[in-house]
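User: For a teaching handout, I'd like to show students what a predicted protein-ligand complex looks like in token form. I'll give you the sequence and the SMILES for zinc ion. Please answer with just the structure.
Assistant: Understood, here is the input followed by the structure.
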Amino acid sequence: MLWGIVLKSSIEAVLEYLVVKALVGRTDVLNALQEYFIMNRSPSVIATRYGLSKHQVRGYVQRVVEKAGSIVKARVIVRKSTPYISRIRPIVRHTSYGMVRCLVCGDEMPAIVSEDHVRKHHQGLVEEYVATVIQLLKREVLKSRAKGGIDA
Ligand SMILES: [Zn+2]
């Protein structure tokens, strides 16, 4: 039942966050979140593995928890959405050091502002991905209900 409640409330905000990370190619952040929420690894272990600081890992985790509303919901959303989020191809490509080019509009920019760029200029694309992931998750819930399984 938990999954049904999550689906109606906080899922969009979390998915939007994950989709934007995927679209700018931040697989390190997505992997870090998966290892934290799914594999229960500690921020220091995750930080070392992905060349992030412990502080950064905690920051990413905190943002997802805030958007989800609770750590339990965050865990469910990250776990359920990971197979779909990991299929999203980045829309930016690294050019020279620290710079990226947006493959949708052709603009070149510092990588550090690429998330803002995607949110500001390609919000429609972000929303499309979020809607698609939600559709796929709903289908999963319906399937598991039909089988009489536990859906959380
Ligand atoms: Zn663009």
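For the handout, you might add this sentence: Residues 102, 104-105, 107, 117, 121-122 surround zinc ion (CB under 6 Å).
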